[in-house]
Every structure is written in structure tokens, then in C-alpha cells.
Amino acid sequence: MRQEIQHDRADAPAPGVEVQFAGLLLHACDAFEEQAEAAAEHDISEALALRHHPGNVALADLTDRLISRCDGLSGGIEGIRESERSVRASGVLETWEKLRTDGPEDGPLGTWSYTRQLALTARDMVRVLREHRAAQRHAIAPFVGRPGLPPLAPDAL
Which residue of 13, 92, 133, 149 pairs with 124 in a disulfide if CB–CB is 3.0 to 4.6 A? Predict the structure, then answer.
């Protein structure tokens, strides 16, 4: 039993080992965001490809999914500091707020047009988030745990 414990300790990393957390965290966050964006893009494509009315139940289901996607994506955009938001980001949030509060218009094409507008808004939201994430990748310096030592030069990473 003691030999196993000593063996585990011998395999343990030495104190002061450099670990890059920023890249790992950024990669994990990117994976979650990309999965949500892929699901949104599927619904966006479905809505924008409609050429014939799919039926009230199918259209209502698609509309509900797009509302959920826009709601989630808007949370990501609202998480961006206002000083860092692009004009497109501010505009898409205004559009989402208007669509959310006004709802579909009355008439035979009201729900169809509403679903299409939700899809276009979700598409813009995905673009905003991707542009922001791409800008953040270049702006974030990796964290390297080196107690008592200066950070590594970018070339050494």
C-alpha cells in the first residue's frame, strides 16, 4: 500500500509547473457556444428554407424553438460589455426586444413573417457572437502559473 502511495507521489507534478489555463478554458467555452450556435443554425436554415406553409403546429414549434434560441443568444450578447459591443450587436438586441414585445402581426402571413424575422435575428446574433469570440481570442493573453516569476514571452508559449 505504501509503495502505491509513493509511486503516486513520484508521478505528481513538481511545484511551479507551468499550466496554461486560458487556452483550456477558452476551448471549453468555445465548444459549448459552438454547440448552441450549431443548433440555432439548424433552426435558422429550416425557417429560411420554408417555401410552403408547413402547417400551424410545425410553424408554432419552429417559432418556439427560434424564440428560445434568440433568448439564449441574446444573453450571450448582453454579457458583452457595452463598451465592447459592436453596432451590429446593439442593433440586433434592439431588433430582438422589438420582436419579443410586439409578437407576430395579425393576418395570414403574420406568423410566417414573424418566424422568418426571428430566424434573421438569430442569424445576426450568431454572427455577432462569433465576431466577438474571434476578437477575444487575439486579445486574451494565456495565464501561465509561475509563482514568483515574470510571465513568459508570447514566443515561448
Answer: 92
